[in-house]
Amino acid sequence: MGADDAIADVVGACTALHSLDVDGVAVLPVALGRGFAVGAHGTFPIPAPATVAILAASGLQTVPGDEDRELCTPTGAALLAEFATVRPADLGPRTIRAVGYGAGSRNPPGRPNVLRSMLLVVEEHAAGDRVDILETNVDDVTGEALAYTLARLMEEGARDASAIPAVMKKGRSGHLVRVVSPPDATDRLTGVMARELGTLGIRCIPMVHRFVAERTVEPVTVTLRGREWTIDVKCGWAGGKISSFKPEYDQTAACARELGVPLREVAGAVEAAARRLFIERGVLEP
After folding, report:
1. What is the mean pLDDT of residues 140-147?
2. Which Pfam families match (predicted)?
3. What per-residue confidence (pLDDT) applies to 85?
4. Does residue 93 contact residue 126 with C-beta atoms inside 8 Å?
């Protein structure tokens, strides 16, 4: 961890962020500094190798800075990388609610040595929302237990849940369980994962922006075996046109069972009828 002050920095910064209870954090480009510094391992270039490694993996933007000293330490880089959840360019119009300043002990000429944080209110993007990503790796869970867990997660409010085959340590076969969670459901869903999977650790990637296409449900009437059926078709829109569409599964399955025909036959007939209807309306490219 380094010196005691690094521990104090981490605890203080995390406590401050937790007390603010914000929905996300945007970090402006980080100034790095230049030159050389002397540490426990000798002379090293600025920015320090640890700082470079952390920022390289974070996706945060940086600027060189115009001072011959270290402007961003590994501890500072780690905090910014962990806290950042939103790109500044994605914020859009915002209202400043509060502002805070933290001053350092240095007094460089030409600029104040302060860190400024602003509490903003941002209008949510119409074409998206923000979600938490929950992940855990398991290698001792049966397929039946996985299927049951995924179903329970969806029942408890997950936006999506999946199990991805993975090769674990020592070559064991396992799964990466990934859940897309509304922020207000994260605690509930992590509880389901822990109880059903017996996992000892769940990673949470907080407040990821998710693009969501405009969606509508369009009723489509189709004739099958001499009978008319009306089945809902879920449509995704982009640029005023339908970009994708799919018959609603439960209704399609119920029709297939009642008629005694394969599901794919019903789905294909509904998709063909939907395509003709949408082309006639001018909302789907031929």
Report:
1. 93
2. Ni_insertion
3. 85
4. no
pLDDT one-digit tens code per residue, 182-217: 888 999 999 999 999 998 899 998 877 666 678 899
pLDDT interval class at 231 (50, 70, 90)? very high
Domains of the chain: 4-122 (no CATH), 128-211 (3.30.70.1380), 214-281 (3.10.20.300)
Q: DSSP secondary structure string, 190-247?
A: HHHHHHHH--S--EEEEEEEEE--EEEEEEEEEEETTEEEEEEEEEEEETTEEEEEEE
Which residues share a beta bridge with 232?
A: 219
CA separation for the pair 251, 249 (Å, rounded): 6
Is residue 47 reached through a cis peptide bond, with omega within 30 degrees of 0 on the bond before it?
yes
CA 26 to CA 5: how far, in whole Å?
A: 25
Smallest CA-to-CA distance from 277 within 249, 255, 247 is with 247
Distance CA 92, CA 84 (A): 16
Give the predicted TM-score (pTM) of the model.
0.48
Q: To the nearest 10°, the Cα dihedral for 192, 196, 201, 207?
A: -30
Contact 177, 146 (CB under 8 A): yes
Contact predicate 285/240, CB 8 Å: no
Pair of tokens at residue 18: 């937790």
- Cα gap 18→32, rounded to integer Å: 26
Q: Is the pLDDT of residue 169 over 90?
A: no
Please report, for residues 6, 29, 38, 71, 239, the alpha-carbon distance to residue 74 in angstroms, rounded to integers and kept in the order given.
9, 16, 14, 10, 44
**CA of residue 176 relative to chain centroid, distance:** 16
At which residue do the structure tokens 């119409």 appear? 126
187 token code pair:
């605690």
Supply the pLDDT for residue 1: 52
* DSSP state at residue 227: E
